Every structure is written in C-alpha cells, then in structure tokens.
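Q: Is it fine to ask for two folds in a single conversation?
A: Yes, each is treated on its own. Send the first.
Q: Here.
A: Result:
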Amino acid sequence: MKKILTALVLGSLLTGLIVPLAVSAQPETLPNTCKLKYDFSDVDASCTKDAEVSADEHGICCMLNTITTATNWVFYILTLIVVIMIIWGGFTYITAAGNPEAAGKGKTIILYALIGLAIALFAKVIPSIVKFVMGV
C-alpha cells in the first residue's frame, strides 16, 4: 500500500512540474487555418482535398480531417501488429511438434490477432460514425 501511495505522490509532483512547462511551450497564437488531407466536399463544398480552410468557418472539416488522420494511423499500426502476431502464432503452432499446450498457445495468438484486426477495421469506420452522429 505504501508503494502505491508513494507512486501516486511522486506522479502528482512530476505532473505538477511538467504540465506548466508544456503549457508555457505553446505558441502565443494558435493557427486559424488547417490544411485538409482528405476530401470532405460532401460536408462543405469548399472542403476539398489539399484546401486550406479557416478553422472558424469550417471547424467540422478540420475536426474530421484530424479524426481521419488519427484513425488511419491507428489502422496502419494495428495492421502491422496483426501481421506480426499472425506470423508468430503460425510459427508457434507449426513448431508445436505434437505438444498440445504449444499448439493451443499458437491458436490463441492467432485468435487474438484476428480480434485486433477487427478493432483495426473498426478504426476505419470511426470517421463515418462521427459524420453520422454530427448529422453531416
């Protein structure tokens, strides 16, 4: 219990020291425009790919651009991890040599990798869900 309390106090002190530094590192003025990487002309006619739009007037396009970029990164990273896990699970299953525990471990790794693939595919759907919820 003392270790947990010590860790919480130490974490709070470090947060109290680091957060002000991070806040003071922010620029004086925030950018008022965003450059779109994706085409959102179905949301607003001026929100086309590679357009630089005002964040005040086209905030929804900037938000969707950020969400799409973040979910694409999540998708690519999870897909890479899934491929590595399937290779590892297949190798474990093939080299089990009749050992039921090792074969079961390989099957479990492949099963969890497929669950990770389902989560990665869900990440690609999130921007569409946000558009639907926002009524755009």
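Q: Second one now.
A: Result:
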Amino acid sequence: MNKTSSSGSKESFAIYTLGKFFIFRDTVLISERSGRSRRMWEIFKFLLANRGKSFFPEDILNLLWPDKDYSDPNMAMRVQMHRLRQALKTNGEGKSLASNLVFTQGRYQWEDRVDCWIDTEEFERLAGLAASGDTSGGDESIRVYREAIELYGGDYLPESSSSGWAAPFRVYYRELYLNCVFELIELLKQKRKYTEIIKICEKALLIDYFEEHLHVKLIEAYLAKGMTARARAHYDEVTMIFYREMGIKPSDALKNLYRLAGQKAGAFELDLDTIQEGLSGQESSKGAYLCDPELFRYFYKLERLRSERTGKEVQLCLLTLTGANYQGPPSGLLEEVMDRLRQVILESLRKGDIVTCWNEAQYLILLPGVNREQAVGVLDRIENNYRQKYSFEDLYFHTKIGALLPLNEDARLV
C-alpha cells in the first residue's frame, strides 16, 4: 500500500497505528506474516511510538511486562529482536524496516534509516496544517480537516490497550482527533452544512460516546435541520446512558438544548398523536417497566399519591439474593444470577408494574392495584419461574412485602 509523503515522493513502507496495527510494503501486508510472537510486535510498537529515544533492554522489558522477571534481560531482548528482524525481511533484495531498529551503546532505538509513511505523522501534519492558517481559506481548511479525521480510524494501537505505556499516546491522539472534529464543525456551521455535521458527530460518537460536547453539537445540528423529535430522542438516550453508566446528570448545556427543542416542538407539534408518539418513545415493553433507582423514586411517590386519592392498594416488594447466613455472595456468581433474575422478573409481571435494580443484590418492585396476598403470589411465581429455568446454586432468595406508606401533608413530587 503505497503512500505519498508531503514532499511528493513514494514510500515503500506504510505503518498504520490508528484503529489497528498494520505494516505494508507496497500492497503486501508484512505485520501478520509471523503470528508466533505477540511480544516482538509489542517491542516494535514501543520503539516506533518512542522515536527519538533510546532504551536499555531491561527498561523496555520492565515497561512492557512489569509483572514478569527475566534472569537475563539482554538475551531475552536479543531473541525477540532476532525474531522481529526476520519477520520484517521481505523477499529478495531491498530495504527492510529492520534497519530502523538500531542497537548502539547497549540501547535500542528507532532511527529513520529507511523511509516509511506513518499514519500518526501524517495525522499530525494535517491537523497542524489545517489549524496553522497556511491553508488558502475556509474551504481548504475544511478539506484538510476532513482528510485528517478520515485518517483517524480509531484509538492508537488498540491491541495494546492493556499496556500502560501506550495510554499517554492514546489520549494525545484522541484529543487531537476531537479537536479536529470540533474545529471542522465550527467551519461547517458557518456554511450551514448541518447534514455533514450530523454525520461527523455520529461517527465521532462511535469513537468516544462519553464526550458530552459531541452530543451538544449533534443536538444543535438536529435542531438546525428542524429534526426536533430526533433531538429530543437523542437527549433522552444520552441522559439515560450517562446516568446509568457514570451516575451523572445532564449538563446545563444539554438541558438548555432540550428546553429549546421543546419550544421548537411546541410551535408545530399540535397533533395529539404526534405528542403521544414522542411521549411513548420507540420501545414497546411486553411486560413490566424497568427503570433506574432515581426514576423509581419518582414512580413510588406518584403511586402513593394515586393510592391516597383512589384508595387502591399498592405493594412494594423487595427481592434479595444472599449467600449462606446472609453473607454477601461471590460477585461473579451474583452478577450472572442477577442478570437472569431480571429477565425472569420482567417476564413474570404485568404491564404497568415497575422494577428497578436497587443495588448489586436487590430488586424493588411496585405492584399497583394488588393486595398483600396477591403480591405473595406474584413473588412465588417469580421464584418458581426462575427455578424452572435455572439453579440458585449457593444463593438464597429472600422477599419482603409492604403496602405503600401514606404521604405526609407536605410531601411533593420532585
């Protein structure tokens, strides 16, 4: 796979590190011809990433595999480097990237003795060119930024994601990518190219879903295109996932966009069917409604108000899994059983019943319009349905039931 350098000359070798690690000579993939040793390729990646620096053999081994002891680090490195140089050799005569792996004065280092195209160097060059003002105007900057973000295929050396040495490089290139994305979005906003902004944001979110500013830019583009329902749906999805995965609530920027979406929707969403579609969302629940604990608190207060007004009973049920003598069960086993139990609970209840995973070993259930005897039958059904499909193994199933307590006079929904 030939690449052209900034000077215009063709290079025989191309190295890809963003999204996946590949080495090509012309169109021939040479990085996977020898799959025997992951270690030798890890050494290659380390020296490539740290171009311009030199390392003693023991320092390389300690940085790459800190938990492993080597009685003879020099010999261990010589063995791996020999394998690596053999893997990098090409058929016939000619240049080899092995020439760039240099051992001098007891240290290993990467030296640019054989020219090669490296995606990170090109990525940095494009990002710098677009940001420097050396481009001939807005259209040219847009073109260069597009080229830069297209080159970013994903995180730096993802195969080495468990290696601490690669983390600073991964953070650096991801931040550079996001900076290019945001700069490009601002240029595209000036030209009102919101469709392209939406595509850029959606692609970037596949790389970093938890970068909130991307969601802000995406919702802004939806609103600019008049896609109000899409904007509100995306807000609902993001806030739910952020709360579930990280326990954080939406920022003021997201809340302001949601309010703006509501105002825009109010200008034309006058049909009740449309409003109901927006309220119900896309998911159709076949059984009970599963929600997070915060939303469950809201439903709990709502059901207490309804119970006081109608006089109908509502039962609160607690399901707890423990080990012997009420001790905490093994976390690995507990997680698997809780996942299975959640599915059984949802399949065993009615529409309108509400469920939440209260903590790692407990579920709470709200049963509207049910007395205590009926609630006992519901919990028995859940346990029997579970036992028909699975075994509790070393876990014990405990239940408690209580009618909802009356609200104090000063209680309010929040």
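Q: Anything structural to flag on that second result?
A: Two points. The first strand starts at residue 3 and ends at 4. The chain has 14 helices and 14 strands.
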